[in-house]
Structure formats: structure tokens, C-alpha cells
Please model this.
Amino acid sequence: MPTLPGPPLPAYLRTSYLSHAQKVCRLYKAALYEVRAKHHERLDYRYHAVLLRQRFDENREVEDPIKAKALLESAYSELQAKKSYFPFRWPNDPGGVAFGRWQYYPDALLDLWHPLEKAQYPDYFARREQRKKEYIERWHQKYGQDARDTGEWTGPMG
Amino acid sequence: MGNIFFFFSLFFFYLGFSNISVNFKVFEFNSIFSFVFFFDWISFVFLGVLMVILGSVVYFSCYYMGEELIRGRGFIFVVFSFVVAMGFLIISGDWISLIIGWDWLGITSFFLVCYYNSDSSWSGGLKTYFTNRLGDGIFLFLLSNLFIYFIFSNFYLGTFYLFLIILLSQTKSAQLPFSSWLPAAMAAPTPVSALVHSSTLVTAGVYILIRSGSILGGFNWYLGGVGLLTLFVGSFSACGSFDLKKIVAFSTLSHLGFMVMSLSSVCVDYSFFHLIVHACFKALLFISVGMLILTNNHSQDFRQVGFSFNNLFFIWVSLVSLTSLCGFPFFSGFFSKDFTLEMFFWSFNPLFYFLFFFSIFFSVFYSVRLINAIVSIQWSNLVKEYSIFNIFYMIFLLLSSVVIGVVFSGWVNNLQLISGNFLFKFLVYFFLLGGVLFFYQHFNGLISSSIFFLDSLGGGIPNNLTNNFWLFYNNVDQGVLPFFSERLSAENFMSFSKVIQVNLFLYFWGFFIIFYFF
Model:
């Protein structure tokens, strides 16, 4: 399941290059979420968030890239060790309770509207009819005039 | 639309009070295979309560599911199908009609849990259905041997078959080896949880044990042990959860264990009484917590609750439900729990005593924790406003969670006051008070909710099932967790043990001194 940014994925699962600044920002966000998970009261959270920011600000001016990378890696392993078992996630974030509550409906559903409902959006439906005609023509040009739809599943959206 | 169900409930309660008993044979084949409905005061009272809860849930689901993009997905159809199945089970008098209700219940509950498209819904649905299916397998085996016997007869069925009946009820009612599906089923929409996982599906197992109560002799220790462990695990795990719905799910689990325990040692009517009362206040708790979740944009974490003036009503309602849950004097939970509690004062086994009274303690602890988290709202999240004038549907459940105990206690058969040592009566309140006080001690990551490694017994289904191989491969299963939520370091142990030591010393020694010297 995709989660908020944590330690870097193994090399065979990485899909993008991240700069050092991006990694640091992702670490900061993940660390702040862990602080939020641990400290439930607002003042308490704010105090520890300021302390966390102070820790990041101390190492802000490090010029040596090797040292910076070493600091980053040790910070990531510290984050991994201190992760809460009940991570703080907003509901629609990956890892939250309401993540993945997708609702699919096929485009053909719009054809089932009542004419009076369709009359409320005349321009849209007129354009839609035109586009349907163009789609059918393009399809016949691609597959020939005698070809017919085999009924294969093309996805949840129809 | 839900009003009609409130009228049906009045009708059923009227029939229930008239104390009739009708055995209605619907179908018979070759004088062996028969299909019987049995109408008793138990059936009618349970149906009445079911109708009240259904009416409230129908209104509640209009708000909760009203935000869905597609309205015509058949949610309410599946809910009604579930209720008909439950009605079948309640009025069934024979194994054939019972298995129809039982299997139908399992299938519809699977569809209800799987309503959303998320990974957790899918894995939760599978866990629910597979555990139920295990019970169905046992049921089919029983049916092949026992179809000629009525479920309520006094005919002794033999130890093996009795054990299978008890095992059957364990799978359905989420007793200990089979309880991992109940927290996982919280991936269902909240109206479903209010109807299904608070009062109907999970009590089906206890209900058949109640119906066959006269033949359960000899299994008292087994039932008591299983019930006790479920009670303890449920209430302990609720103390460590941060998800509102999971806390309520664990609380349901502990109350189911309590019902099974009261079956094992006390009259069957106590268990039924608690079943009814628990259904009322638990459904109310789910609905009020569900409205809080709804106003917080579906956030179920009690660390994320935002403030709205209209939320205050739902907070108050959940407070009423929680006080009834704890067994606070003269709310309805008091009448159903206290009689059973007094029976367990005379238990000889110290471990039993210890676990049982700690479970009461923990039940108060998690209630206070929940209400503290909800009341002390400090985060200014975006909160959706709901009109306070649309909450009248909760009135019946609200009244019943306060009043039904008084009404029914004078009427349930064989309910008698246990007169004992005056101080024994206060033992319970020591524990209640202790639960409240214990909450305000400061711990640092004391309790972790791993439900005692039960997830590993849940068929090995991880909590984040997905069809994407790489996501599945690279995951961390959130099920099996160690006991402490912080690292196991010496100083954590010391702080934990010190606080426990001080508390226990002051609290229990004070009690024992009073007990021994007065």
C-alpha cells in the first residue's frame, strides 16, 4: 500500500530521481506526522514540532554533500525506529481510512438521463452527441466498416 | 421512511408483552424434514429492538450515504435483505430455517462490509466471510446429523454435537479464536456497523445459545473461559486504539464475551436482557460516533476531531451511551450488567476474578478515554455542519439506553436480587472509579492494540489486500504488533512498572484492608 514518504524504496521500485532538498522535505513531513501521532494535545504538539524544526535548522548550513547524506540516512533510520503503530493520516491520504473509496460509473450512464434532465444542459449534450458520432466514425475507419465490438472489458469506466 | 419501523417495533413489543408461544410449522416433508417458525416473547422483543435500530439506521444512512456520488447502488436493498435474514434467524424454530437465516446473514454481511472499493474493505469482507463460512461448515455437519431435533427441545444431543453448536456460535459471535473479523469489519460504512456489528450479526451466535440454553449443561467452564478471555481481550484492546470505530468494535467484542459468560453461569434470561440493552446503547454509540465521523469528513481518528457547535449534541449522546455501557448506576447498562457481576463475586479461581474485574476496569478506562478525546477538541479542522433539528431519530435509542433497563428488569423471568455482603456491592464501584482515576495518570505509550496477535489467526489475510503485486510485496502488515508501542527499553519498563506499582499499591491494598478488617 502506498504510504506517506518514508525511507527510500529499494532501487528496483524507484521511479524518479529526488534531489537532496526533496528528500529532506519528505523526511520533515513524515517526522512531523509522527510527532502529531504521538502528542495529542495542541500545545504539546506545537512544542515538540518546534523542537523538531530546531533539529532540522541546526544542520541547515551543511555544505559537504557526503556529510549531508550521512545525516539524512541516520535521520531516516531514526524515523523508522520511532514510527508509531497508529500513524497519523488524513482520511483520504494513502494509508488513511477513506483511501480507495473510488466510485466508478460508466460514461453510458449519462445516456440514461431523462430528457427533461438533459434539457438542463443542452450545450453539453449536443457536444456529447457530436463526439459520439465522431468516435464511431474513427472506430470504423480504424477497424473497417464491417467490424463489430467483441464485448471485451475495457476498464471500470466502460 | 424510518417511522414505519418504529411502529412495527411497538407492534412487536405489544406481542412480546402478551407472553404467547406459538410453534408454526411452515413446511414438512416425509415427517422428517420440517421448517418451523417459533414465536416466543424472546423473538418478539428481539424483533422489536431490531425494528427500532433499523428505523434509526435508515435515517442515519440518509445522512451518511447521502454524500455518495451514485445514490442507486442498492445499499438500502442489501440492508433490508440483511434485516429479513436476521428476522428469519430470530423466529426460526428448527435447524433448516436457522441455516437459511444463518447463511443469508453471512452473505449479506459480506456485501455490506465490501461496499466501498478500498483494499481494507476487501480484506475485511474476506475475513468476515471466511470466519462465518467456517461456522457454516460446522453447521452443515450438524445439520446432516441433527435435522430431526427441534432447536429448543430438552433432548440431550451428546457432548460432541453440543461442542460443535458452541463452536458455531463462537465463529458468528466473534468469541476468542475467531474474533479477528470484528475490527476488520469496521471498514464497512458506519450505518452498517451500527446495525450489523453492534446488535444483530454478532449476537446471532449468542442468540442460538440462549435458545438452546436448556441443553448447555456441562460446558459451563468452557463457555465461561472463552467468554472471559474475549471480554478481557476486547476491553484491553479498546484501551489502546485511536480509531473511533475500532474502539466501539472492541467494546462490542468485550460485551459479547460478557453475554457468553453470563450464559455459562447464570440464568439464560440475564444474557438475553444484556443482549437487548447492549443492542440499544451500542447502536446509539455507533450512530453518534458516526455523525462525528461524518462531520469530520470521514476521519475516524479521535486525534483529528474538529469543533462545531452542532457536534456537541452527538458528543452528549455518546456520553449517555458510554455511561450506560460502563454500568453507571440506574442507567440501563447497570441493570443488565450488575446482576451478572454480582454472581461472579463468588468465583473461586483467582485468575478468573482478576481478569474479570480488570475487564470492567478497562471498560470504564476506554469509555473515559473516548469521551475525553471527543470532548477536548482542540484542532480546527474543516467541519461540516449538520442541522441539529434532524436528530430526532436518535430519540428512541437514547431513551431506551436509559430507560429500558428499568422497564425490563421488572419483567424478565427469574431476575432476582442477590443479597450479599454490603461491601461486595461496592466492589464493582471501586473498579469503576478506579477506571476513571487510572485514566488521568500519565503514561508514555503504554498500551498497544495488537489484539493479542489475533490478526495472525484471522486466516493470514493482511489488512491491505491489493491486486498490485509490487504494492503487496513491499508492504508492512499492520496486524501483528508487539505489546508496547514504544521501544522495549529499560527505562520504559521502569516507568510503566513504577506507575502500575504505585497505583495498585494504593488502590488494592486499601480495598483489601477494608475488606479484611470490616
